[in-house]
Automatic annotation (TrEMBL):
Family classification: Belongs to the Gfa family.
UniProt xrefs under InterPro entries: CENP-V-like, CENP-V/GFA, Mss4-like_sf
Pfam name, any one: GFA
Alphabetical UniProt keywords: Metal-binding, Zinc
This protein's name: CENPV protein
Keyword DNA damage: no
Coiled coil: none
Encoding gene (name): Cenpv
Keyword Zinc attached: yes
GO MF annotation, one: carbon-sulfur lyase activity
Domain CENP-V/GFA, residue spans: 8-120
């Protein structure tokens, strides 16, 4: 359906939340050092909202926000796993946790560190992050 992309499926630990996402088989994953990403070990790749579909579990999600309340940290009420969320950098898309994808569709993962401790500066200086959620 999406040229040059594969359909990945994934979800939380207990299986209450399931999703599909169209993305490259070669993932560009961000490793952020902001306070919440450090505590959660949140590594994620960004996709446009149009390439993400929640298959089940909407009623089993809860959301945590703080500071600007732009990032929507969604997680499963049962097992506590955040398999995706709405990042502050890309509120029109989703940040997907690659470790929550089912096996078999990821070829490679390239990890890029981002200085979330200086979030405004890091996002302003980054050349492509804001465009990652554009279709």
């Amino acid at each position: 359906e999406y040229r040059g992309m594969v359909k990945h499926t994934g979800g939380c630990h207990c299986g209450a939340v399931r999703f599909e996402v169209w993305a490259s088989a070669d993932l560009h994953v961000f490793n952020c050092n902001c306070s919440i990403c450090t505590k959660k070990q949140n590594r994620h790749f960004i996709v446009p909202a149009s390439r993400f579909k929640l298959l089940k579990g909407a009623d089993n999600l809860t959301t945590y926000t703080f500071n600007t309340h732009r990032a929507q940290h969604t997680f499963c009420k049962t097992c506590g796993v955040q398999s995706f969320y709405t990042p502050r950098s890309n509120p029109d898309g989703y940040g997907i946790a690659p470790h929550c994808l089912d096996d078999g569709t990821v070829q490679t993962i390239i990890t890029e560190d981002i200085n979330g401790k200086e979030w405004e500066k890091a996002v302003k200086e980054h050349k492509t992050i804001r465009d990652m959620s554009k279709p």
